[in-house]
Design a protein that fits this description.
This is Protein BONZAI 3. The chain is of the alpha/beta class. The protein has a single domain, classed as 3-Layer(aba) Sandwich (Rossmann fold). It has ten helices and ten strands. Strands 4-3-7 form a three-stranded antiparallel β-sheet, covered by helices on one side. Helix 2 runs antiparallel to helix 3 and helix 4 packs parallel to helix 5. The longest helix has 15 residues. 39% of the residues are buried. The C terminus is likely disordered.
Length: 241
């Protein structure tokens, strides 16, 4: 999830999208984590999740676009949705907000994990949730990363918070029927991105979970079918027959 000073502001300022309300009222980032996490957590057997931040000056004073949200140098996983919420709150106290908005590194990190899984378990599928408020600085680099990732068992859900112009997110979503193209004119194997702006959710037009997960089953099935990967119970039934 993103830390960007221009629109998010100081987390102690009630006008900030990152504001932690002492009354317990959730900010937009927390709402997205809770609403989406409470659904997709059940598709992970151990419910341990990698959690990264981007656009922040981290503990060693450098600006990072993919840092461990829990602040640990060794491991990036946290336990359950509660662990994500705790790591997010902790990061706000320990990481200074910094721009610009870059997606490339965090997408490449998720893609690397998805790619590594192919060597030991082809039945695994990964979902990266990105929560952002800003306009991308690395649009072409992000396209390149997404085109490369389209060959991997990975889908990317993007939630837009705040009132920014999300035209670039719509481009990444590629719901116009045109697949993304890289800087070398390579076309994405399939669409792996779904974008939903939270302001439409808040206005009561849609459910964020329903809208975000709408395309996920199709993306998952397209990947598995193209690689002839069948559910284990089907394979067992065929073997028994």
């Amino acid at each position: 999830m993103q830390n960007h000073p221009a629109s998010n502001g100081n987390p102690r300022n009630p006008n900030s999208l990152h504001y932690i309300d002492p009354s317990g009222r959730l900010n937009s980032y927390q709402q997205a984590i809770m609403e989406i996490g409470e659904v997709i957590q059940f598709y992970d057997s151990d419910r341990r999740f990698p959690a990264w931040g981007f656009g922040g000056k981290t503990f060693d004073g450098t600006v990072s676009h993919c840092f461990n949200l829990n602040g640990r140098a060794g491991g990036f996983e946290v336990d359950g949705v509660e662990g994500i919420m705790a790591a997010y709150a902790s990061a706000l106290n320990n990481v200074s907000l910094a721009g610009p908005t870059l997606f490339g590194q965090v997408i490449n990190t998720a893609a690397r994990i998805a790619g590594q899984s192919l060597s030991f378990d082809r039945s695994k599928y990964f979902v990266l949730l990105i929560i952002t408020d800003g306009v991308l600085t690395d649009l072409q680099e992000t396209k390149d990363a997404l085109v490369r990732a389209s060959d991997l068992p990975l889908s990317i859900l993007i939630v837009g918070v705040g009132g920014a112009d999300f035209t670039q997110m719509e481009i990444l979503d590629a719901d116009n029927g045109r697949r993304l193209e890289s800087s070398t004119d390579r076309v994405a194997t399939r669409d792996i991105v779904q974008f939903v702006p939270m302001r439409e959710v808040h206005s009561g037009q849609i459910s964020v979970v329903q809208a975000l997960l709408e395309e996920l089953p199709g993306q998952f099935l397209t990947y598995m079918r193209c690689r002839d990967i069948k559910p284990l119970n089907v394979q067992m039934a065929q073997t028994c027959a």
